[in-house]
Amino acid sequence: MTNVISSFQNPRIKNLLLLQQKSRERRKQQLVVVEGLREIGIAVSNDFKLVQLYVCPEIADPASFASLSDNDNTTFISKAVFETLAYREGSDGCIAVLEPKNLSLIDVKLRATPLLIVLEAVEKPGNLGAILRTADAVQADAVIICDPLTDLYNPNVIRSSIGCIFALQVVTCSSVEAMSWLKEHKFTTYAAELTASRPYHQFDYTCPTAFVLGTEADGLTQQWIDFCDHRVIIPMSGSIDSLNVSVSTAVLAFEALRQRDFSIK
């Protein structure tokens, strides 16, 4: 084993903390910090370039990270340093620095009958991560995030998505760009909207389908409501009028999957 970094003043450790804490640093350096063997493994298996792997030998099992990296880009750190860097409790001793993928709409590959999730101005990292897990579960072709208010590679997004962000086609763009692209590719669009009168389960989602959802606080803006082909509502029987946006996404996406006989084509 090579030397173990134990100083919090080490420039690489200080930069890691900056990357974790500051979205502007992630954008400036075009680097992302990922914690956890599972998440790192998902990223590497989906062709995200691993720049550096930081391993705490007091925590990590050497056999578990051997296939992820080599001696040239593996750095060992002390337990104290790792615990300062670790974003969650019970971590497995590995933190990686990766190069992000900055996909655009022209990069998106679609199946014969695609299913999309479109989000307008998503702002809560935990909700975005949960939506990405749903998108992975239903094998959505892509998640399009319009006018985002949160950093795609916020540590909370990565953690709550359990690494699914690296397994999906995720694109950020403006609403205008997304609308033009959806029209060009002949999607039928469905706005999840509280004042809609027709329940979501009464529509046919076996054609190219895009579900469009807004923020929990304000819902969709009028431009998206006017743009979408249909407005759908999830009927509510209790004292509140809406679900968490990640739950709403799951309800709609799994209805589409059910109508397609749970077949990914």
What does this 3D model show about the protein?
By secondary structure, the chain is α/β, with parallel strands linked by helices. The chain folds into two domains: 4-98, Ribosomal protein L30/S12 (60s Ribosomal Protein L30, Chain: A, 2-Layer Sandwich); 105-259, SPOUT methyltransferase, trefoil knot domain (Alpha/beta knot), CATH 3.40.1280.10. It is built from ten helices and eleven strands. The chain has helices spanning 11-21, 23-29, 37-45, 62-65, 79-85, 125-137, 155-161, 175-184, 222-227, 245-259, and strands at 4-5, 32-35, 50-55, 74-77, 94-98, 115-120, 142-146, 170-173, 188-192, 209-213, 230-232. It has a six-stranded parallel β-sheet. The protein has a five-stranded mixed β-sheet with strand order 1-4-3-5-2, sandwiched between helices. α6 (125-137) links the parallel β6 (115-120) and β7 (142-146). α1 (11-21) crosses α2, α6 (125-137) packs parallel to α7 (155-161) and α6 packs parallel to α10 (245-259). It is elongated. The termini are far apart.
| Helix/strand/pairing category | alpha/beta
Share in helix: 25-40%
First-to-last CA distance: 47 Å
Per DSSP E runs of 2 or more residues, the count of β-strands stands at: 11
**How is the main sheet built?**
6 strands, parallel
User: How many DSSP helices?
Assistant: 10
Please report which band the strand proportion falls in: under 5%, 5-15%, 15-25%, 25-35%, 35-45% or over 45%.
Answer: 15-25%
CATH fold name of the largest domain, please? Alpha/beta knot
Radius of gyration: 20 Å
| CATH top level label of the largest domain | Alpha Beta
* Mean pLDDT figure: 94
Strand order of the largest sheet: 8-7-6-10-9-11
Which CATH-level-2 architecture of the largest domain? 3-Layer(aba) Sandwich
- Name the CATH homologous superfamily of the largest domain: SPOUT methyltransferase, trefoil knot domain
**Number of folding domains?**
2
Task: Spell out the helices and strands N to C.
Answer: EHHEHEHEHEEHEHEHEEHEH
Question: Per the principal axes of the C-alpha atoms, what is the gross shape?
Answer: elongated
Uncertain ranges: none
